[in-house]
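User: Can you fold this complex?
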Amino acid sequence: MLRLEETTETSRGAELQKSFAKQYVTFRVGKLFFGVDVAEVQEIIRYQALTPVPLAPSIVRGLVNLRGQIITAIDMRALLRMDSFPPDSTPMNVVIRAAGETVSFLVDGIGDVIDVDATTYEPTPPTVNPHVAKIIDGVFKLERQLLLIIKPDACLTINPLPGGA
Amino acid sequence: MTEIDETVREFLVESMENLGHLDQELIALEERPDDPQVINHIFRIVHTIKGTCGFFEFKKLEAVSHVGENLLDSLRDRRIVVSQDIITALLSLSDALRTMLVNIEQSGAEGEELYEALRAQLAALNEVPGKKSSPPPAESSGTTAATAGATANGQGGSNQAFPSSEVDTSDELEKIFLAARDEFYAYSENTEQAQVAASTDPVASQSVSSPALSATLETKGPEATADRAPKAAIQSEGPKKSEIADSALRVDVTLLDKLMNLVGELVLARNQIIQFTKHQNDGAFVRTSQRLNLITSELQEGVMRTRMQPIANAWNKLPRIVRDMATLCGKKVLLEMEGKETELDKTIIEAIKDPLTHIIRNAVDHGIESPERRLAAGKRPEGTLSMHAFHEGGQVIIEIADDGAGMNVDLIKKKALDKGIVSEDRLSRMTEQEIHQIVFLPGFSTAEKVTNISGRGVGMDVVRSNIEKIGGTVDISSRFGQGTSFTIKIPLTLAIIPGLIVNAAGHRYAIPQVNLLELVRIEGEQLDTELEEVEGAMFYRLRGKLLPILHLRQELGLPPGNFESVETSVLNIVVVRADNHQFGLVVDAIYDTEEIVVKPLGKLLKGVASFAGATIMGDGRVALILDVAGIGRQAQINRGDTGGQADSDVDGESVEHQKRKLLIFEVNEEQRAAIPLEQVHRLEEFEAKRLERAAGRIVVQYRNGILPLIDLQEALGGDRPSYTDAVRAFVYQNGDSYVGFVVRRIVDIVEHEVNVQAHYRRPGLLGSAIIQGVVTDLVDLQALMDAAKLSATSTSEAACFA
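Assistant: Here's the predicted assembly.
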């Protein structure tokens, strides 16, 4: 009987695992903990010199030179309508392919690459702040916190805040 | 679309190319009807097409080209003389072939059309008058002899009378060649061989099993020596053909694009290395980097050239178009083309084909007058259309000029007013040149009737935007009665451009050199004397003309620089040009010109009009490339009223066609009005009892100050309403002070296109437009304030509004 139960568990898990990546790159923005499918992450680099773009939407912190490629750096705190990064901070760059181009997410800190248990998945709870809900595709209930799974494409299609000085 | 086989695709590509050449040669034939080379060439082209489509079993194509080939054959042998009808028929042949090829490309089949009329026409033109002909001279080359015979054979002996009496050796040879060639085609598997066979009759070749042939060969044994001579003559033609085929290579365009990108990256890396060498003392390193520098430059040039093609590629269809248009319009036009070999990048050539065609069509249709009118004006009956292309200053310049009627300013003005494209007010302030520019506005056309070709009014604005899309500019210059000329300027390269590096607020920006006119430096006293301010906008007197001045810091929303509050001794101005606007851009510092690789901006930044892209500087930092046209447009929109600038151009009027944010309100029950939203500082509602009187005006206490109120219903000619409970108003910022305008009701804030129709002009109104389906007046707040004698007064209290 035990075996029967096990089989049921694993087959359900297998089904769930079909739709979710097994490994996520994790990072922190403010107090929130996010994960991105490992397959979508190109690289993670430390803070790079940014060229600001005047008049750009406020979520665009600037442009970064990544080995000859110019990529847009997106301020994740601004995207989530949190307080800005402290003035002297050096946010890390999570370089991601999204919507056909390469962009970088500026985040507070990088976590490990983790495997998740597909059974802990839940669709985005309705109580989540709408700014956050717009860019995530569900959560995993980890031991000590919620892992919010980011949809990179959604970060580029959000109506950006109008630009200003 | 049906899947096309690879070989069929190649056939289509080749044949289209050949048809292009065919057209060119036919036009050449018109000019030089006796030139045997031209006729020969035309024959070979049609012959090739016939041969290859036979292989593919495109029967209709083959049938049509076959009849054409027969006619050309007769021309080649001078049995027929070239005439206008023949050329027209051959042009129709070219069209028919092209149509069928396009059908094949789109659906895999030639289409339904059998072209019987065309075939009959071509056959009729091939009738030799009198059915008499002289036998081909014995000493002529074997090819001619053979094809003469072929004509007879091919047409079932309609016109050729074979020389009766003595059977010539050459006559028999004809039969041999002819039979051999036909057999060869039947067995030929290779299009190239078929081509070669056309000129080199392979008597010597392989398995020819025609009984007629073997019979003739047997009986003509002793004549073997005789046929060796023509054979030799023929074969000497063979190698000549293949030489031409071998000197060029077909390369996939995407591969070339890839090479260009790589070269672009190499240029960037080279720039970075050069930066490092500036601080290096190691001789060997410096020398090696110099070598790298030279090699990179040459490589860049070389790769650029692979994509360069002579502008003739864009021009070669024009003679035909001019000819057709002229015939259609009943005009005589002489086309002169100079600078055909001027080279351009392939993408540019593709991009200018349509604009050039449109300009040419316009010139023939509207520019050049009919022969009668020309004669009456004392001109020659044929008009001249001249095209001139050349390189200058890193750009390709194309000048298209006609000696036609020139542009009629009055007609343009009238049409502009009729179509509501420009307001009467603006028109009265325009110079003649500015009026010429009106033709570039969308929706404009002076054609009295819309013809098939032009006159729909969608032309010149599309021409301009197409050219600007590739970074070029187009200008027009005209003298009434004498002619018009268009000047197109296009930067030579797309991805790597020279740019002037400037600094604003601590960051570097690049200004494309194509937009650059000059650099001006103003110091000391000149700051007072040569800079002027008009209605809040700054101007500089540049050689007598007023140049609008923009501050780059301000346009980019950056913090203002020192020179605005403290007197500094120097002002750096970069005079730029875009969209036919000129203005000066004040920057903090000017560095040098560098070659920069243009990289596109990501999705999120595409909407920022002020930037055209980004680049990586020598030190690895990213710098933004300014979009001069975008900055100019943005500045006009921000200023709202374009009438304030003394030097503004016609293009400012197109702002009226863009969507603008408007505040719509009711002046009274029947009348709606609107103003640009940017003029609204705040919307307010006051209780009627708060209204007071001061200096003969209604005012209200507002934020520690006194806000004068203008009742719009009263100001626009109505009665002043009695205020009962709530008074609604919008507050307008007038310099340092504020003015309130009372309305009956705020209706909405919309983003809407404003198409001003200046019908019921009243003081205080700019005109009316249809917004949200309702006729809405556009209010001129400034005029109303002037009328109410409300000048800008600043009080310390008013300052706290800010």
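Chain B touches chain A through 26 residues (CB under 8 Å). The longest strand of chain B covers residues 383-392.
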